[in-house]
Write the structure tokens for this entry.
Amino acid sequence: MSNTMIQQVHLAAQYLAMAGKSFLPPKEDDSHTNIGFIPETETLETMPLHPSGQKLVFDYSDFSLKWESNVTHSFPLDGKSHEEVIVWINTMVALSPLTQRYVYELHYELPYSALGDFKFELADPSQLKELLRLRKLGHAVLQSFLEQENLPSDICIWPHHFDTGAFMPLDDGSGKSIGLGLAIPDSICDEHYFYISGYLGHNALDVSNFNALTHGTWDPKQLKGALLPASNRDTKGAAQFFRETLRAYTR
């Protein structure tokens, strides 16, 4: 898959993250900028931005932003510039009970930008459908694994790296915690991949001497955990990868 469509959706999600940054109380771990994925509606969405329920949403089904309140307003992204998106969001904010300003100011670096002469382009709808399928797969795998292992964690999207992820302490008295999820292609893997890493405090656990996995591989250098490419994976197979790696961390 070309990275172009991945970049387009990643950039669209930044408008949601900056809505969280603009309108929600800041949290030390930056989780106020996190984004939710709703499989039933095929959307990314902010947390409620106001007690009356306003949300900013990205809709995979028609490649649009939506402002949800008592009435849903839609803004198709195809052919639009960053400036046009900002004007529309500011119009929606002005019509809402929100009193703060919407400020688009990333506090992290992305490898690409919506600024300058960039325009959103739905060049290949089939790629957008594939990205939606992968997002649904990642969510379903995490949901299944967390329920089966009775691990308490929200499933959310961190807008910087754009992974669907979860993080929780292990309830075994070890002081360990694990982070896991589905990541988009990056310097570690050139396709979407499932990942898991273990921690003691803020330090990643050394996996260099862990036994080989049935599916997936340990990466003690870059990831400092395990990864499984998402190609040709289903919920059952990916959840098995997480179960096997979890057992390695809890031995």
Notes: The chain has a mean pLDDT of 95.
